[in-house]
């Protein structure tokens, strides 16, 4: 009986992961005004089930109804056909265009890259607590970095992350000879064309005689292939308004990276308190505010290393 309860709790835990991942994907799609028919939701839910290794999960009508009710999602008719074209063009591109672009490349030669914003001092938004505890409002700590993640289709190559901050030389870098990740800066800590160009040219030089395909979105910071004269990297841009649907790193990989990152931030705070009793009276939020960019880069590198080949 206990074994059955254990299996049930594991299954429910995985189901919650699937539902949270699906909700995040749904939010991203709706923010881009992409229409989501029922069939796509079923398909994506099953994709996430495979990603999280839940072979027992089945996306049924009853499950979908309960998921919609829990998340205040309704099914409505849209006026006009423009939004419906996004899924249609994405499907056409994946089925007809993409195979012709990669036909001369092996899976391990096909890469994807994507930027993500990281509130590097923010704590997880959910926690266990006693039933009689008050959950006071907690503002998110908004110091932001941008992290660029790049990996190949097989997950056998995960390139060193690039972290972008505002400061040219953060004080925490003083005396440090080797950084755990690459680092660049811009006035708003966002990706810029010059940063991305420099990165691509360095990678192109490293490849020597190897050829790769790099799939990326149409971000304004991503320069066109012909502007760069790359010898070994072939850039392939996703069609407009399809990023949320077919960008590989957006299908749970970045989410997995951030999950591990938040866990490591909490572990660091607990470790700091255990190692220094004078910190016991400080709140976790105050302790997280002391996290430096260098420490965040270490956590970024470790979190990216943990993301498994199976997840990718």
TrEMBL record:
UniProt keywords (A-Z) are: DNA-binding
Question: According to its record, what are the GO cellular component terms?
Answer: nucleus
Q: Which domain of life is it from?
A: Eukaryota
Gene3D superfamilies for this protein: Homeodomain-like
Q: Where in the cell is it found?
A: Nucleus
**PROSITE patterns referenced in this protein's UniProt entry, alphabetically:** HTH_CENPB
Instruction: List the SUPFAM superfamilies.
Output: Homeodomain-like (SSF46689)
Q: Where are the transmembrane segments?
A: none
What are the residue boundaries of the HTH CENPB-type domain, all occurrences included?
Answer: 6-77
Q: What is this protein called?
A: HTH CENPB-type domain-containing protein
Q: What is the lineage of its organism?
A: Eukaryota, Metazoa, Ecdysozoa, Arthropoda, Chelicerata
């Amino acid at each position: 009986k206990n074994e059955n309860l254990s299996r049930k709790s594991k299954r429910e835990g995985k189901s919650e992961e699937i539902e949270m991942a699906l909700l995040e994907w749904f939010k991203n799609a709706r923010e881009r005004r992409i229409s989501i028919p029922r069939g796509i939701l079923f398909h994506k839910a099953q994709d996430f089930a495979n990603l999280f290794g839940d072979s027992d999960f089945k996306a049924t009508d009853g499950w979908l109804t309960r998921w919609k009710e829990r998340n205040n999602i309704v099914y409505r008719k849209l006026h006009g056909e423009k939004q419906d074209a996004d899924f249609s063009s994405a499907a056409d591109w994946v089925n007809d265009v993409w195979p012709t672009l990669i036909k001369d490349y092996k899976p391990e030669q096909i890469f994807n890259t994507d930027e993500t914003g990281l509130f590097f001092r923010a704590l997880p938004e959910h926690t266990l607590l006693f039933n009689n505890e008050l959950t006071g409002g907690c503002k998110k700590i908004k110091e932001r970095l941008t992290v660029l993640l790049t990996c190949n289709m097989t997950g056998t190559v995960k390139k060193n992350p690039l972290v972008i901050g505002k400061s040219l030389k953060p004080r925490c870098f003083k005396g440090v000879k080797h950084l755990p990740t690459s680092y660049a800066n811009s006035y708003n800590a966002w990706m810029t064309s010059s940063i991305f160009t420099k990165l691509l040219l360095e990678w192109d030089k490293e490849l020597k005689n190897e050829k790769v395909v790099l799939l990326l979105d149409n971000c304004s910071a991503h320069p066109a292939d012909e502007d760069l004269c790359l010898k070994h990297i072939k850039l392939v841009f996703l069609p407009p308004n399809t990023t949320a649907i077919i960008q590989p790193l957006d299908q749970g990989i970045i989410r997995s990276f951030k999950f591990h990152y938040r866990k490591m931030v909490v572990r660091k705070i607990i470790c700091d308190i255990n190692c220094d009793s004078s910190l016991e009276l400080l709140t976790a939020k105050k302790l997280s505010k002391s996290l430096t960019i260098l420490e965040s880069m270490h956590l970024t590198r470790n979190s990216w290393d943990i993301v498994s080949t199976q997840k990718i």
